[in-house]
TrEMBL record:
Region (Disordered): 333-353
InterPro entries in the record: Phytyl_CoA_dOase-like
The protein, known as: Phytanoyl-CoA dioxygenase
Superkingdom classification of source: Eukaryota
PANTHER family referenced in this protein's UniProt entry, alphabetically: PHYTANOYL-COA DIOXYGENASE-RELATED, PHYTANOYL-COA DIOXYGENASE-RELATED-RELATED
Native species: Aphanomyces euteiches
Pfam families in UniProt: PhyH
Record's signal peptide: none
Length: 353
């Protein structure tokens, strides 16, 4: 029987906040229903099958000769890197064909978890990607022999990185728009707010199916100490100094502390961007499928919502069968969050009704 990382109910706020503070990450269970997970997985398969080469029920079609090139080999990310400023057409992303992905982004339980960890009510959500990893062992044979193991299907091994530079504190703009009014120096000087990343598991993700790994507890004091010790050496390398995406050196001692985090379907993983993390390969028999997303406080002006991008009409983002909820409109930046005065008036109306 598969073993999974300890997880918490969304209502067990005291314990999941304590776990996040201790480890730098936390798993919250039962965020999506079985139906929501199935619909999400269906959208991933629809993307993979869009050119007619891959067939979800035929492992013989899952080879590299058919597999979409837009699925990142490092971590299994589905589709183009979501740096929206450079995107020419939204059709390339299939966002307008994925209604469930939008419902997951505006899911009230997802919002509640991010809101509690950030201690902020007014948030924006990223427009990010699905992720998929093929099973390295696939049953190509009809007899009882051990299935073939496909090493060429595996994602990058021992992948450990930050999406937040320990040296200048710039954060990856994936899923958001960069605020071009802020310079790198201004970001460095204003750093201090908590940056979060997250993913939702859409299938059971036991260890053999690959998944998320990290160095638990490597945040705050340990993060800043490491940065100070490497600022004048590793931090000065040209490929490191100006980037927000930073690979952990291959010989770093922290790699001995890497912990794998298997999770049940429908779980939400949230981690501190200071946490060294990555994906480990799928060595199993089943697909790993997830959805990535982040939320940031509205008052943190390093980024803006992707839908603030004026070159795309708002209707281009959404599938015809989907309309954002009231919460979604605020999370996507389509409507402003109520001011404090408005919130107080709404609360008063509710008390009087």
């Amino acid at each position: 029987m598969a073993e999974y990382h300890p997880s918490y109910s969304i209502d067990d706020e005291e314990n999941y906040l304590a776990a996040f503070k201790r480890d730098g990450f936390v798993v919250i269970e039962n965020i999506l229903s079985d139906e929501e997970c199935a619909l999400s997985c269906g959208e991933i398969w629809d993307y993979l099958e869009r050119d007619g080469k891959v067939k979800r029920d035929n492992p013989l079609t899952w080879g590299n000769e058919n597999w979409p090139r837009e699925v990142c080999r490092n971590g299994g990310f589905v589709g183009r890197f979501p740096f929206w400023k450079r995107m020419k057409k939204l059709d390339q992303t299939s966002l307008n064909k994925q209604p469930q992905s939008w419902r997951n982004r505006e899911n009230p339980l997802v919002y509640k978890a991010f809101s509690r960890i950030l201690s902020e009510e007014k948030l924006w959500v990223s427009i990010d990607r699905y992720g998929v990893m093929r099973p390295a062992r696939v049953a190509h044979k009809t007899n009882d022999e051990e299935p073939d193991e496909r090493d060429d299907w595996k994602t990058k091994a021992e992948w450990l990185h930050w999406d937040l530079s320990p040296f200048h504190f710039g954060t990856s703009a994936a899923g958001f728009l960069p605020n071009e009014n802020l310079s790198v120096d201004q970001v460095h000087k204003s750093y201090g707010s908590l940056r979060l990343q997250g993913l939702i598991t859409l299938r059971d993700c036991p260890v053999e199916s690959g998944g998320f790994h990290c160095v638990p507890g490597f945040t705050d004091e340990r993060f800043f100490k490491w940065a100070n010790e490497h600022r004048d050496t590793y931090g000065t390398l040209p490929e490191i100094a100006s980037r927000n995406f930073i690979e952990v050196p291959h010989d770093d001692e922290m790699r001995k502390e890497i912990k794998q985090v298997p999770m049940k379907a429908g779980s939400l993983l949230i981690w501190n961007s200071q946490l060294p993390h990555g994906n480990f390969p799928n060595d199993g028999y089943d697909f790993r499928m997830v959805q990535y997303l982040k939320m940031i406080p509205v008052k943190d002006r390093e980024f803006l919502p992707a839908m603030k991008l004026e070159k795309f009409d708002k209707s281009e983002w959404f599938p015809a069968e989907y309309s954002p909820s009231a919460l979604g409109k605020m999370l996507f930046g389509m409507e402003d969050w109520p001011s404090s005065g408005q919130e107080e008036n709404e609360s008063k109306k509710q008390r009087e009704s």
